[in-house]
């Protein structure tokens, strides 16, 4: 598969009417061939109207049929893994192992959703039988289950060119439940996006689905991205990116004549609270684990530990241990020159804040976009007085907050914004005294981590990768794991509907053999 | 229990600093004693901060404890049913049977949510066991379940002074899941609101809950209602009312520094599609059922059938049958003089539209706010060309759209906005030819009704009372039935958490014996 350098509008290529651009290799600063054509309103209109048309039949496909599509995409990606991983390395400077590992995760997600919708119990099918003899009024028969919302716009992320982009979790979960997808490619990795997009495009054709089930657009600037969100045919949005960008999309979606849900994953500093007992028992191991979590993927993870909370009395021991490991750490180049610039600006902004000191830093990397892992320190008092210190610095930077006892821990936990994760490092037997802390953190985060670090997001049934605003637009959802399927659906009730017109999942004989709630009892 | 005429701010009465007002009996036009004190920012600040404080302990109560609260409220309402029903009649002009019936439904809802949360399986508890030997990386143990969002503001509805107001479905579902409630009373029925609110206030105290679990505010004007929604302590909103009012609340909530979800039920014309076969088989019965559904409760139901779609060829038979039953119908006075005024203005607006004729009307009622049930007619062509004809006239008015064949049915279904319900009246064997119509309607509505009328909303596990915008703010939820509990929650994941710190629902031994998803299998 060689690169064409065009948007994919259903089964066709975009016209590239809005100019062109080339990707940049962040490790070398060199531009990469070929040029990619940018598209505008025409492509948006065509992709969204194809998606709306496709929805009318795609929503009626069986879970098994959509599972086939997802598995065909996964197989197609694996068949092209060498080309995709190579182009991804060139466009992102991420190491080969990471590129191949992310491909494994991406295909795993596709197959996970395939298994989920092929089986069908996730739909929360409910059957309430009629009772014509009920007094004072007869009881109607009602049956409900989840149904797809309609076309979904997916914004590809810079930091996961596969797992959170064109064929990532948002796309996989939307296609799984019966929603066509219009992916907006992240312009930092257009070649990776095109290669993945073409696998999806081919899979749609192979599976006999209407072409509008998938489009991939290269759009210049925010204006056109917002116009895409404003399209009346679009019924939901998935987004992974910055807080500023995510909020802009949220505001556009909320201001539409018909507001639509936006699932934006935006920013998180993922606080790590370390008890006195934990420092006493394993200071060195915690510092090592922290340094590794902080610098993993050059700190470009949404779950990067950007805030550490410890007791003042542990300061010297912890700082010495961090210094020991952090100085050994260097980072590969960041994903784009702009991201590296923002990182350096973030470091400067923190360094200039009242009471903030540099506790340690790693080695600078040898690249056109050198960055240095950095750990700052500040007192709880200064932290609580300065909201600027709660900002995310996207990259391998963290702030250690020194507390005067457990009451400061609680104050810091109460002051932070919504987070994807919150972590407690503790010692067995000690945790009971931190019950209030854990309860406070539960109100702030989507995932509570105990004696581990927040990076590494397990893809499964019980994962929640979504927390209160501003970590995401809406903490009532997750973008990772099977529960992500719920985002692009709504419940529909059929009242006194003839059996033959009901979806199979709701028919009286339960032909698919799924778990249902029948007259209030869960029946497997 | 005699009326005090004050807001309830936690366990205390409001100061009434913003003036006072009296209720009006819509049947007589007379003002009712006593005066009610209006409150402002002070009461808002106090109620919201009490709610936030209460949330810290209320969220940790067991489902059984919250079930006790809900049942105590239900029993308290029943103990005061005579006083509440009498005041409700005076304030609303609704007949006694309706008032008592709505009390039964309200208490039924409270007990339904009590049963739900006492049992606990609704929380979707998920357990994924750790696998330390997994390659290449060990698998962490993850467990997830739903947790409450925080304080919820509930706007009482005019048309259901009990079932969708102070102790209505929004309040019951919020309290059930662990969210404190700040109810904003509808000023059309302040006495009913106070009597119900005081039962809740007393129940909170009886059950040993913190006072901030419930407040009831009388607020003047929209500005203060919006300030209540803007309070940082408020984490979600339930609303039942007009499209204009609901959208204003949605916009305020979306523009907050921390946007919050709004569950607003706003407007719906609940289209009824009647096939040729149905008219041929039972024209008279359908017309009778329609006239009854249209005028029930003076047409003041959110599921009132405001649009009927039939074939041109059935015009004469159907119009004659409607006329036969409609002329017999009269309505009790509407809930408020303002609602009656809006109704009459709506009739005038429709009557002046191009191609609209009056097909029939009922008897005028003898009251200070007389209204006349009215059925208009228009061709599909004119209907499709004029968006104004899709507006809701709140009250006993409906528009019959005459179609040239089944393709017009599809066009009308495609043109309508989001609806709470869509109904098909058909004959057995005939429906197969309407598969496309049913599929189209599924995209437009939350509930599909077959061979019945949309009024009458069954309260149960499979009910969906919520459809695409503008029928509600967010079609992904329901305000009626047990699935309403999902609205005020979000999933939280505990990773590698010590068993004793987990909520009981997630502990390894499953001490509550609830249904859970364990390693991908639903275990009862």
Automatic annotation (TrEMBL), chains A, B:
Keywords on record: Oxidoreductase
InterPro entries: Ald_DH/histidinol_DH, Ald_DH_C, Ald_DH_N, Aldehyde_DH_dom, Aldehyde_DH_Superfamily, ALDH_KGSADH
Domain of life: Bacteria
Occurrences of domain Aldehyde dehydrogenase (ranges): 17-468
Protein's recorded name: NADP-dependent aldehyde dehydrogenase
Protein source organism: Neorhodopirellula lusitana
């Amino acid at each position: 598969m060689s690169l064409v350098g065009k948007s994919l509008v259903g089964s066709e290529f975009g016209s590239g009417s809005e100019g062109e651009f080339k990707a940049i290799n962040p490790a070398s600063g060199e531009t990469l061939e070929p040029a990619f054509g940018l598209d505008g309103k025409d492509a948006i209109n065509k992709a969204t109207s194809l998606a709306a048309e496709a929805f009318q039949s795609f929503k009626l496909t069986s879970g098994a049929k959509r599972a086939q599509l997802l598995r065909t995409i996964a197989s197609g990606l694996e068949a092209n893994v060498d080309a995709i991983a190579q182009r991804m390395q060139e466009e992102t400077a991420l190491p080969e192992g990471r590129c191949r590992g992310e491909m494994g995760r991406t295909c795993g997600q596709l197959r996970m959703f395939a298994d989920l919708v092929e089986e069908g119990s996730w739909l929360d099918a409910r059957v309430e039988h009629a009772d014509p003899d009920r007094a004072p009024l007869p009881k109607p028969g009602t049956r409900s289950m989840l149904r797809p919302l309609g076309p979904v716009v997916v914004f590809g992320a810079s930091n996961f060119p596969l797992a959170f982009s064109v064929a990532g979790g948002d796309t996989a979960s939307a296609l799984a439940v019966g929603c066509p997808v219009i992916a907006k490619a992240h312009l930092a990795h257009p070649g990776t996006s095109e290669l993945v997009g073409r696998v999806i495009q081919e899979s749609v054709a192979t599976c006999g689905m209407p072409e509008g089930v998938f489009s991939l657009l290269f759009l210049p600037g925010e204006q056109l991205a917002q116009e895409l969100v404003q399209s009346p045919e679009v019924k939901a949005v998935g987004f992974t990116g910055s807080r500023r960008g995510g909020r802009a999309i949220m505001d556009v979606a909320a201001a539409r004549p018909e507001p639509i849900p936006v699932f934006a994953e935006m920013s998180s500093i993922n606080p790590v609270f370390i008890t006195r007992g934990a420092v006493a028992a394993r200071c060195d191991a915690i510092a090592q684990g922290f340094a590794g979590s902080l610098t993993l993927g050059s700190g470009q993870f949404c779950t990067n530990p950007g805030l550490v909370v410890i007791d003042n009395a542990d300061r010297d021991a912890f700082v010495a241990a961090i210094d020991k490991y952090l100085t050994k750490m260097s980072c590969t180049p960041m994903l784009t020159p702009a991201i590296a610039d923002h990182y350096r600006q973030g470091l400067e902004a923190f360094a200039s804040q009242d009471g903030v000191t540099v506790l340690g830093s790693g080695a600078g990397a040898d690249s056109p976009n050198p960055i240095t892992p950095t750990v700052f320190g500040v007192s709880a008092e200064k932290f609580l007085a300065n909201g600027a210190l709660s900002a995310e610095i996207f990259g391998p930077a963290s702030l250690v907050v020194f507390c005067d006892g457990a009451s400061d821990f609680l104050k810091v936990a109460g002051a932070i914004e919504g987070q994807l994760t919150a972590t407690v490092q503790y010692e067995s037997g000690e945790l009971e005294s931190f019950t209030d802390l854990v309860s406070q953190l539960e109100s702030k985060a989507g995932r509570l981590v105990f004696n581990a670090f927040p990076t590494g997001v397990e893809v499964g049934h019980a994962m929640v990768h979504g927390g209160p605003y501003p970590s995401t637009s809406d903490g009532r959802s997750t973008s990772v794991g099977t529960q992500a399927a719920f985002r692009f659906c709504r419940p529909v009730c059929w009242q006194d509907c003839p059996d033959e017109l009901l979806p199979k999942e709701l028919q009286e004989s339960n032909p698919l053999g799924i778990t249902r709630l029948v007259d209030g009892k869960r029946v497997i």
